[in-house]
Design a protein that fits this description.
- By secondary structure, this protein is α+β, with helices and mostly antiparallel strands.
- The chain has a single domain, classed as D-tyrosyl-trna(Tyr) Deacylase, Chain: A.
- It has 3 helices and 10 strands, in the order E-E-E-E-E-H-E-E-H-E-H-E-E.
- The protein is globular and about 45 Å long.
């Protein structure tokens, strides 16, 4: 039986195993290319690799977008990570990556059964992008369901793993 549990901002979450995941990297620059052509690029900011699970909802997209946008991972005047993306005028490059939902616990080949079907994943990916843009952050993206080349210069390095359920 699924049990409800409250999350931040009054959003109700279901107690579940599958949830939206993000690998977030602070960068000095990044771009994504498709067939040799750059389709999205940013200067200083965050690269977000986003995996959408089969039981995610628009609330997951919005909550995770707001959480990532408000992460204090940029240096203040004392060199302490105390500023968020909005505080430093940075941008975000968002790339869909269903492989973040890969389950490697059994065998040698990852299972992607937890990943959302493409139609749902694309809709929730776009919800995430729209939620970030609504916060006034410049957003660049890759192309959904395409083989892309992502290039970035990780600044720090700073790399964080987040999910919409806050399991890690």
């Amino acid at each position: 039986m699924l049990a409800s549990r409250p999350a931040s901002a009054g959003i109700t979450k279901l107690d579940r195993e599958n949830f939206m995941r993000a690998c977030v990297q602070r960068v000095s620059q990044a771009h994504v290319s498709l067939e040799g052509e750059v389709c999205g690029s940013i200067g200083p900011g965050l690269v977000v690799l986003l995996g959408v699970a089969s039981d995610d909802s628009p609330n997951d997209s919005k909550a995770l977008a707001e959480k990532i946008a408000s992460l204090r991972v940029f240096d203040d005047e004392r060199g302490k990570m105390n500023r968020a993306l909005m505080d430093v005028g940075g941008a975000m490059l968002v790339v869909s990556q269903f492989t973040l939902l890969g389950d490697c616990r059994k065998g040698r080949r990852p299972s992607y059964a937890a990943a959302a079907p493409p139609e749902l994943a694309e809709a929730l990916y776009q919800e995430f992008v729209d939620a970030v843009a609504a916060l006034g952050i410049a957003v660049a993206t890759g192309k959904f369901r395409q083989h892309m080349m992502v290039s970035l210069t990780n600044d720090g390095p700073v790399t964080l793993l987040l999910d919409s359920r806050r399991a890690f």
